[in-house]
Amino acid sequence: VNLLANSSFIMWPDGDTSAPAYFALSGTGATIARTGTGLANTNRLIGNYAAQVTYGSATARLQQTLLDSGVWAANDHYETEDVAITGWIKTASANKVRMYSYTGTAGYEYSGYHTGGDTWERLEVVETILSTATELSVGAEISGSGNFYVAGIVALFNDTATDRYVPSRAVRGTISWNFVGTPVTGDGQRF
Length: 191
Fold this sequence. Notes:
Elements: E1 24-26, E2 31-36, E3 49-54, E4 60-67, H1 69-72, E5 82-90, E6 97-102, E7 108-110, E8 120-128, E9 136-142, E10 147-157
C-alpha cells in the first residue's frame, strides 16, 4: 500500500499555484504549479496531473510528512523498517534534482540525481529507519536554478523500490463503512 495521500496530485484545494493537498512546498522564493490534462502546461505522466516545482534562491522541496514528530513516539515500532521511495521526475537541470526521505534527527537519505535530459526518469531511495528517527517525510528537491516536474510518488515499507506506480489506497482522514443491504435515509429514501 502506498503510504502517501494524493500521490496522483489530483487534489489542489488552495488552487493551481499552491502545494497540492497533503504536500508542503519549502525553499525561499520557490514556486509550484499544477500541470496536466486541460491546463496550459500539459506535462504529466501518471494520472491527469503532475506538480512543477521551480527553484527560487534556496533548495526547493515538495514534501509530504507521513509521521510527524508529534506522533512519532507512539509509532516508533517503525524503527529498523525499510522505507522505499520512488518518484518520476522530469527536468532539464542535470545533477540538481533528486528524491529523498527525511527522518528528523536521523537526517536525509537521497536518491541519485536526475540526468537532466528533459525526460521522465524514475528516481528511488531506500532507507532503514534508525532508532534516532523522530519523523518520516518523503519528497523531491531541486538544489539550483531550474525546475522539475514530479509525478507518481510511491512510498512503501519495503526493502526494494517499486518500478511501477502504486496508487494511494485512500485519502487520509476519510472513513469508509461497509453496509449490508441498500443504504437509505431516515425517511426511507435511498441516497
